[in-house]
Known about the structure:
Blueprint: H1 3-19, E1 42-44, E2 51-53, E3 61-66, H2 73-84, H3 86-91, E4 94-100, H4 104-114, E5 120-122, H5 127-131, E6 135-136, E7 139-140, E8 143-147, E9 153-157, H6 165-178
Amino acid sequence: MSRRQLFGFLGAIVLAWFALIPGALALGGPRPPLHQPAPDFTLPTNTGDGNISLSDYRGKWVVLYFYPKDFTPGCTLEARRFQQDLPKYLAKNARILGVSADDVDSHAEFCDSEGLKFPLLADTTGEVSKAYGSWMGYVSLRHTYLIDPDGILREIYLGVNPAIHSAEVLARLDELQAG
């Protein structure tokens, strides 16, 4: 196990411990309100021209998921589930964007090792994670935001279970698109 993987694993254990504390889900600061415009941002990425803005995705649903660290067990499982369901999201006019404090090089390695075909964004300063109430000191918390094609925040997920989260988001996306 490399030093990067060891520290990532230890960080994941600490975050899992915080998730068991009552009230820990409120960590991360104030979140943007539902049914209001989602905070716009531009972040570097490992794909395309090197930067992605939320506004680039107007006209599409966006699953904006924040996660603590590349190569950690929970984050890897969550990313694999989103990748496995990617064709279902694309069929629903939805795109997936992952955000963590890891740098672009780490994201590129993570995408290569896991076969991820969706962008991971490098929020190394935590600025975007803070705007979404998903920042805890030096890592992003495991939160997901579902944003509609007009850029309006429609759903917030806290205390995410990586094993079933993608299925939960797909089910809610079905409900929102039907109603």
